[in-house]
Amino acid sequence: MTFPLRAGLAAALSLVAAPALAHAVLAVTQANPNQTYRGVVQIGHGCDGRATKSVTVTIPEGVIAAKPMPKAGWALATAKGAYARPYPSYHGTVTEGVKTITWTGALPDDQYDEFVFQARLTDAVAPGGTVYFPVRQECDGAVADWREVPAAGQSSRDLTSPAPGVRIVAAAAAAPVAAAAVTAPAASATVRAGDLAITAPWIRATPGGAKVAGGYLEITNTGKEPDRLLAASIPLAARGEVHQMSMDKGVAKMAPVEGGLVIKPGETVALKPGGYHLMFLDLKGPAKAGDTLDGTLTFERAGTVPVRFAVGAIGASAPEAGGGHHHH
């Protein structure tokens, strides 16, 4: 299959990847490799005045574990296939997965809607390139197939039917998608990104040989629109995810938060031991108590925000670098 990733196109490709009259665009147009991506396909109108009957998204090579979000009133179908090569996953190595997602229903030409899916961007999607998600829009007696990919030196604006694209950036160099003022991070300080205030980010220290570490913080949304925490990163970890711990008949269970953690307007969400938290996976070395680690948090609206994590003691339930109380 054609690999729809073109490294080195970042300078040639604007974040607004499609012309003003395009039917299909992506709401989130910037992401990091080795992170979960929440794709929101926006359908602005039908095909030459005709109502939209189905929307199909093709998942490109290098993107795995795709899961669609159901829509009320729309039928949902997926087609699976083999990947071009095996990819590591926190569930083990995967060799196949969802390749296409189709929603079937009715969307009048004069109405707007969004079609949402979640997937993981692997290390095959390198910073400096763009990943393209072809979208096929079927209408009453007409089809709009948005799958053209720019050639080297070409812009999506030059194409008739451009595929929606996601620009891949290195975590350390990521900038907010929105024009949000971000204060310089300091360990345990409050970082502001647009309407969000991020307070006291910290990580539990880990023993040598550990492969995972927990991260914690508080996020306050002072705006009028909800936002979602999608992912996190630190240099020590291959990837960072938002997880939730819960108790089921006395047994502690932990799982990723599908679609990201929502921070509602006026709400403060605490990520802390025993509940919602960040999980940093595939550590390259130990997190040492008393150190600080520069990292990022990726939000749906605020974009990618730089933060500095203080490293607390092993087993600590508070961010004091030297120890603190232990979690019971």
UniProtKB/TrEMBL annotation:
UniProt KW Cell wall biogenesis/degradation keyword: no
Residue ranges constituting the YncI copper-binding domain according to the UniProt record: 23-168
Organism superkingdom: Bacteria
InterPro entries: LpqE-like, Lxx211020-like, PCuAC_sf, UCP037139, YcnI-copper_dom, YcnI-like_sf
Key words, A-Z: Signal
Residues annotated as signal peptide: 1-22
PANTHER family: BLR7088 PROTEIN, COPPER CHAPERONE PCU(A)C
Protein name per UniProt: YncI copper-binding domain-containing protein
Organism, scientific name: Methylobacterium indicum
